[in-house]
Amino acid sequence: MKKYIQNIGIIGLFAIISYLYVWSFVRTGVIYVSSDRVFHIERLEEAYRTLKSGHLLSYISTYSAARVGIATGQGYPSINLIIYGLIRLILVKPVVSYYSYIMVEQFFGLIVAFYAGWVFFKGSKKSALIFAVILRTSTYVMYNDFGRADVGEAWALIFVPLALIGYYLIIARKEYIKGVLILSLGLSLEIYSHILTTVITILFLLVVYILHLLNDRKNVITEIKALMMSAILFGRL
Questions:
Q1: Does the keyword Transmembrane helix belong to this entry (predicted)?
Q2: Which tens digit of pLDDT belongs to each residue from 92-111?
């Protein structure tokens, strides 16, 4: 019972942090100028109008980009935009919907970061909580949300800790099955948000694994099998 109450408390804290994260911006009633703001707001509104018309996704600019049918959705994953579309359908107001969308992103990010920290710190909720808050309120995360307004990368960053902790479980803990599942899930969720972030994550893990092999080759066959299984699952998902 105590553990259940503690978990509810952590989720509640994350909800409060997520609300405070956007609160000062919501009050202004303005979406501020950002590097990629116009492009991504058009994508968000495209997702909303597509849902409103009774369809789930549109891979062309039916309602945005002067309605000329640019295949933006072919190069930019759009699954995460559905969340904005649903929020916009419920809240109606575009500015409130936009910041609510960022709030939901932050909430999910805190939960995923907490889980990754909980695994890494071997069940220490205090350490996991500190890690999650520091990571999700870091300069780069906030820059993506408000300075660049890069929706795709912002959502992909949520799942980077998941991919990294999956790799860690395979290499450091030798928990191969769990590691394979978490690594493949993390990469799959990344690529549904932002392709480049996924590529960078994979390249980073490859470099780290090569460096690992320079010092420890005892379990190389088992590790490679696990990593290949992760790649197969990633491809299937």
A1: yes
A2: 899 999 999 999 999 999 99
